[in-house]
Write a structure and sequence with these properties.
With 430 residues, this protein is mainly α. It has 2 domains: 19-91 and 165-381 and 396-418, ABC transporter involved in vitamin B12 uptake, BtuC (Orthogonal Bundle), CATH 1.10.3470; 92-164. The chain is 78% helix and 0% strand. It has helices at residues 3-36, 38-65, 72-87, 92-96, 99-121, 130-162, 173-195, 200-220, 222-225, 241-244, 246-273, 275-285, 287-292, 297-323, 333-347, 352-388, 396-401, 403-418. The radius of gyration is 25 Å and the shape is globular. 35% of the residues are buried.
Length: 430
């Protein structure tokens, strides 16, 4: 076979593979609709679509630029918190109390402190030695932290005593989702300024630590998020189940989420095939060669890191509004970091269609493992008792609920064994 005929055969074979996999996934979804009912299956698809948006965000970070981000949960929870703040109804008790002006004053101090630290860190422009700049920046940051904390402590105490928490601004959900992306992207920009110059393993450690800091702050900031008391009910961008019923409301939410996912994917696919996408792949594959050709490696990595984080924040906001409750302690690394990585690895890094396929498939496996395991364990208990006189342990059902971790581990092991590049790997042009 000549090179030309081989290059034509590879895309045709890849297309057939994609069609077969999508058809199999569609058949699995239809089976769940038949077994679990339309309302349950639609809820699962809404959450899977939100996870797909997050997975696409990770895919462009890892698949396009090779950035090893293990702080996914931090961007998700930050985006969710920003959307809650924008969209939750106004709390009149907060605005009528003494905590509001005190909080405003504290925020002014915070902005001034950030500007002062940033100014000191740029002292190299006037010839200050690098070592002295580092010492001055650290000292300024420490003093600024103590001053700002002294302003925030009485404000937060007054808010919790008078109003419980600050509430929200009562804005439309669309504004909240936009704010979610902006806040997550802003956090990524700050992290990128500090960490993108590090090696991949150090970047992973840094993002993981910052993710835990964000979650811990939101979990303990009762004045902002009510902590573990949760904030609910959150508004929907479409009519709620109380207005038009569970199935119609969830179907509309699914349509809106799917539309956002399609638009995001089409825009990214267009960018992927443009010179920007080729430049990103060049930086990923050979950073030294790309840099020697005059490419701004750090700038391009910052772009992709911020863009991916914005999608993660958006996905987190979509998830939290769908569940209609915000609880910072409900965000865990297993569900909101490890599972996302499994989706991208299984689907195929560098291919957005693969990330979407992996997200939907893995979330279906993750969700359906519990009822499937309960049914199998109940069958084993009945047959074992009637045929062999087996006395099952009292906690058999609780053991079945833990089978999802085993099933996900087995799934990723099989994929890495038989399809190490994912079931829909990145298409490379020859």
């Amino acid at each position: 076979m000549t090179d030309a005929s081989a290059s034509r055969a590879r895309p045709a074979s890849g297309l057939r593979r994609e069609i077969l996999l999508v058809a199999a996934l569609l058949a699995l979804v239809l089976l769940i609709y038949a077994l679990q009912g339309s309302a349950y299956a639609t809820r699962m698809l809404v959450e899977a679509a939100a996870y797909a948006i997050i997975a696409v965000g990770l895919n462009i970070q890892w698949g396009y630029a090779g950035l090893f981000n293990v702080g996914i949960m931090g961007f998700i929870v930050a985006g969710a918190a920003a959307s809650v703040l924008m969209t939750f109804p106004v709390n009149p008790a907060f605005w009528a109390g003494t905590g509001a002006p005190m909080l405003g004053e504290a925020l002014v101090w915070l902005i001034g402190a950030v500007l002062l630290v940033a100014l000191v860190s740029q002292a190299r422009r006037i010839g200050v030695p690098k070592g002295l700049i580092t010492a001055m920046t650290l000292a300024t940051a420490a003093i600024a932290f103590m001053l700002v904390s002294a302003k925030f402590d009485p404000a937060t105490t007054a808010i919790e005593a008078e109003a419980g928490f600050i509430g929200g601004f009562g804005l439309p959900v669309a504004v909240g989702w936009i704010a979610a992306g902006i806040v997550a992207g802003g956090i990524a920009f700050v992290i990128g300024k500090i960490c993108l110059g590090l090696r991949a393993d150090y970047l992973a450690i840094a993002t993981l630590g910052i993710s835990q800091i964000i979650k811990t702050f939101l979990k303990n900031a009762d004045w902002l998020t009510r902590g573990t008391l949760t904030v609910s009910p959150l508004p929907w961008p479409v009519p709620t189940p109380n207005e038009i019923g569970f199935l119609w409301a969830r179907s509309l939410y699914l349509a809106l989420t799917a539309l956002i996912l399609i638009v995001v994917t089409l825009l990214l696919e267009r960018a992927y095939r443009a010179p920007w996408g080729r430049m990103m792949r060049a930086i990923r594959d050979n950073e030294a060669a790309a840099s020697s050709m005059g490419k701004n490696v750090d700038g391009r990595r910052m772009e992709i890191f911020v863009l991916g984080a914005m999608l993660m924040g958006l996905g987190g906001a979509i998830l939290v509004h769908f569940t209609s409750i915000f609880d910072p302690s409900g965000f865990v690394d297993l569900n909101h970091t490890f599972l996302i990585w499994v989706m991208v690895i299984l689907g195929g890094a560098g291919n957005n269609r693969g990330a979407i396929f992996g997200a939907v498939f893995v979330y279906i496996v993750w969700t359906m493992s519990e009822p499937a395991a309960l049914s199998l364990f109940a069958l084993a208990r009945d047959w074992g008792s009637s045929w062999f006189g087996w006395v099952p342990p009292a906690d058999l059902d609780s053991r079945a609920l833990q089978m999802r971790v085993f099933v996900i581990g087995l799934t990723i092991t099989l994929v890495l064994r038989f399809a190490p590049d994912g079931v829909l790997p990145e298409r490379l042009r020859h």
